[in-house]
Design a protein that fits this description.
By secondary structure, this protein is an alpha+beta fold. The protein has helices at residues 15-18, 25-31, 70-78, 120-128, 144-154, 161-178, 217-223, 228-232, and strands spanning 3-13, 44-49, 58-62, 80-88, 104-106, 109-117, 185-192, 197-203, 212-214, 238-241, 252-254, 259-263, 269-272. The longest helix has 18 residues, at 161-178. This is Class II glutamine amidotransferase.
Length: 276
């Protein structure tokens, strides 16, 4: 499958999460500890927002393994953002090409996915035909992940993210079962409009891929008052990850099965995810 992370908080260089932690995203591209595959070398990408930048987020995506891309290392060292998503890919059957690397972008929205639509080659026609005709020309790749994104957009992602993703999941399951696929959907999803970050953990069989969120910063400061990194970041800083980036005790909380959450200014939210 894949590994991804989403960061929201005090602006930092991308390398602080992509390269520096013990189990950084780049380390996970070679040595994933909790993924289906140990190696995630079928492409990579990052998308980030900056207050002074363009209205749409900036994308950088490649087709090779993330661990060997010198341009990614240079970019991560020199680019700062207070909200970014990053992804390393392990293909589930679609080609390794730039348009299939995550994140996917539409307007201000970014989308990353770990998982799959089972028997996607059988379901693809019915799923793609349900995409809003106005959105269809923006479909650039051939992955199930991008089709999920455009279905969520079709069902209202830009106005009501939670119901839209629930409708997307319910529609994929309905189409899958029409084709005799017992457990059609496996997903953890991260998506953002540049202000908030939503995370979703769900699978049709109830055994979803791992997903974690960082512990409240104020609680971590109380546990580790001498930690310089915790002193530098804001109280509202959060990281959502496929698997923890380090082994600091108490720093990572597992997202429950069949759940959604949103990282935002003020109180974050967590609830039960129910496909519609």
């Amino acid at each position: 499958m894949c590994r991804w992370l989403a960061y929201s908080g005090t602006p930092i260089p991308l390398e602080e999460l992509l390269y520096k932690p013990r189990y950084s995203l780049i380390d996970q591209s070679l040595h994933s500890r909790m993924g289906v595959e140990t190696t995630n070398g079928d492409g990579f990408g990052a998308g980030w927002y900056t207050p002074e930048g363009p209205a749409a987020p900036t994308l950088f995506r490649g087709t090779g393994p993330a661990w060997g891309d010198v341009n990614l290392r240079e970019l991560a060292r020199s680019t700062c953002s207070g909200l970014f998503l990053a992804h390393i890919r392990a293909s589930t059957g679609t080609p390794v090409q730039q348009t299939n690397s995550h994140p996917f972008r539409y307007g201000r929205w970014l989308w990353v996915h770990n998982g799959s639509i089972r028997e996607f080659h059988r379901l693809k026609r019915d799923l793609v035909l349900a995409v809003d005709p106005a959105l269809y020309p923006s479909l650039a790749g051939s992955t199930d992940s991008e089709v999920m994104f455009f279905l969520a957009l079709t069902f209202g992602l830009q106005d009501e993210p939670l119901p839209a993703v629930e409708r997307m999941a319910g529609f994929v399951e309905a189409v899958g079962r029409q084709h005799g696929v017992e457990h059609p959907l496996q997903m953890t999803v991260g998506t953002s409009d540049g202000d908030r970050v939503w995370g979703f953990r769900y699978s049709s069989e109830g055994r979803s891929r791992t997903l974690y969120v960082s512990t409240d910063v104020t609680a971590l400061r109380a546990l580790y008052p001498e930690n310089e990194t915790l002193r530098r970041i804001s109280d509202e800083t959060r990281i959502v990850v496929s698997e923890p980036l380090g082994e600091l005790k108490g720093a990572w909380q597992p997202v429950p099965e069949s759940s959604w959450g949103v990282v935002q200014k003020g109180a974050d939210e967590l609830g039960t995810f129910r496909p519609r």
